[in-house]
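Progress report, Aim 2. The chain analyzed during this reporting quarter is listed below.
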Amino acid sequence: MPKLSVIVPFYNVQQFAPDTLKSLHANARDDFEFILVDDRSTDGTYALLERAADELPGARLLRHEKNGGLATARNTGIDAAHGEYLTFLDGDDWLAPGYYPQLLAHIERLGCDFLRTDHVQCTERARTVSRVPVGRRDIVLSPREAILPATRSTSVDYAYAWAGIYHRRLVDAGLLHFTDGLRTAEDRPWIWRLHREAESFAAVSLLGVFYRRGVTSSLTQIGDVRQLDFIRAFDQVIRETAQDRDAETMLPKAVRTYCAIIAHHLSNADRFEPAVLRRLKSMAAAALKQMPQQVLDEALDSMDVQRSTRLRRLRRRALATSAVAA
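Predicted structure tokens for the chain:
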């Protein structure tokens, strides 16, 4: 059994894949495996991966018959992984040399189910350190207790799957797979499930993942219909959290986060195609209508005036539409 499986999905990242692959090579070890998943790229990415599979120690190359999105590509890698521990990297990001051996040493020392790390956000020439919103470092903590409070950024808001490492027992428990087919916000139901159901985690002050922001081909930069998968993702968060034994205390956090994400997308309305924007407003209004209304009222009361006004207006639209339909 390899000690570590690194799962790296690629889709149309010909420009950036060489940096990613070079950094993997600088992290190779005899007991590491690198599972490269091509999500049916249409540029030169797959040709690069074919060459890399011959040169990168421990590499295995898999290719989808059709494009399925990041969540599905990660699941393909999880199903193929043999390691005692698993981690992720996106095909347009890169690593510091020797980062994975350090990451592995930390989780073995702490003995927890999963470990979260800081990362470096890279936008053009700018570099910014982004830290896990967990104050206590290098100590094993309860994942459930790290979900709250509702009004502050917590570990479930730091949803990056590649900013951490995960013990195989999470795979065996059915906690590490992503919701198949999600093309954006795929990390959100996943991180919530980990925090609700895993037994232990820790955060460490380790830098080594470089996250490339502002990539024009990234879904975070594209205003087409795939962006609306965030609604399906957060609907799942709300639905599953409502079934939790501590739903009364956890739902305010889930609802408030969902509202903040809706408001964020509405504030960037000029990025969306007109038809997609109309669909966004319609789907967001329906989502607000389906939330627990008392919890929603409390969430809106806790937000700033600009965001709460925008969301209240959208909710009134949903209620008016329902009244007309009745």
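The radius of gyration is 20 Å. The chain has a mean pLDDT of 94. These observations will guide the mutagenesis work planned for the next reporting period.
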